[in-house]
What we know:
By secondary structure, the chain is mainly beta. The protein has one helix at about 1-10, and strands at about 25-30, 35-50, 50-55, 60-70, 80-85, 90-95, 100, 100-105, 110, 115-120, 125-130, 140-145, 150-155, 160-165, 170-175, 180-185, 190-195, 200-205, 210-215, 225, 230-235, 245-250, 255-260, 265-270, 275-280, 285-290, 295-300, 305-310, 315-320, 325-330, 340-345. Strands 1-2-31-30-29 form a five-stranded antiparallel sheet, with no helix packed on it. The protein has a four-stranded antiparallel sheet with strand order 3-4-5-6, with no helix packed on it. It is globular and about 45 Å long. The model is unreliable at about 1-35 and about 355-360 (pLDDT under 50).
Amino acid sequence: xxxxxxxxxxxxxxxxxxxxxxxxxxxxxxxxxxxxxxxxxxxxxxxxxxxxxxxxxxxxxxxxxxxxxxxxxxxxxxxxxxxxxxxxxxxxxxxxxxxxxxxxxxxxxxxxxxxxxxxxxxxxxxxxxxxxxxxxxxxxxxxxxxxxxxxxxxxxxxxxxxxxxxxxxxxxxxxxxxxxxxxxxxxxxxxxxxxxxxxxxxxxxxxxxxxxxxxxxxxxxxxxxxxxxxxxxxxxxxxxxxxxxxxxxxxxxxxxxxxxxxxxxxxxxxxxxxxxxxxxxxxxxxxxxxxxxxxxxxxxxxxxxxxxxxxxxxxxxxxxxxxxxxxxxxxxxxxxxxxxxxxxxxxxxxxxxxxxxxxxxxxxx
Length: 365
């Protein structure tokens, strides 16, 4: 993914060198901002080289992860879809993508539990692909998504959205037929992270190039553009869908964005290279993986306070919440005994659910 990597280096003004040799033995408690123990438990295991993202299937109680080896401009030398037991953190099965001239290396991922499928981005092949969750069999590849980066499933509407970074477009597919059904192009943008509000059908993309959010709602004539922090790579929504959160790699911040007003209401310093964001739905806490800082920030979005800093191994790349108070982080540390990247499970400390900043309501869990 050379074009995005070059832009990241320009904006962040830093070069990432992968670290090798540290042992994947993290276990114990995280610390709060004050340095006092909070009770979150961290378990890490070496998993595979080239880890990128993960997704959780409630239907199958399985964690899926993508792995592709070979940093641009070098060719991909291997790629796998990994089926992982979320309890033991063991790889239950590994599936190899097809070769179509080159390996259809997998990067972004989301699950469609309604149809028991997996959708992935083949970033370096400018396409997306569909796999069976039951067998791991490759079902289809759909080309024409240039620098496809992330993908998100709207199960309620049978729609799958992907970001086409090089085209400045959001592309939608029918999750039943696998056919492209919509393409929204916004000239001069670089969409990366995606999230969908299944209640409304609105899709939101982090525009890394212009430090803004792209909002596409059903029936809208044109996308809405909302400012956010510097160099956003990932985006998530609050439980009620009224607030967006972006992980801003260039500024090392979490931006809290009021979607109705279209303004940043809070900017929270989390750590250098903020890369990925997720929301723990029961508490409303926001989790930010800080790639260069090598940790995960747990944020109370209502107060803008980092309530906990959880250690990970070097270069955490993605965070996924799966179940109550549990998150999974994949990294690019290369610190396993055979140079594997790691998977870290974080069982967050139990806290009283936060009141939502707009409504005052507590999440129902």
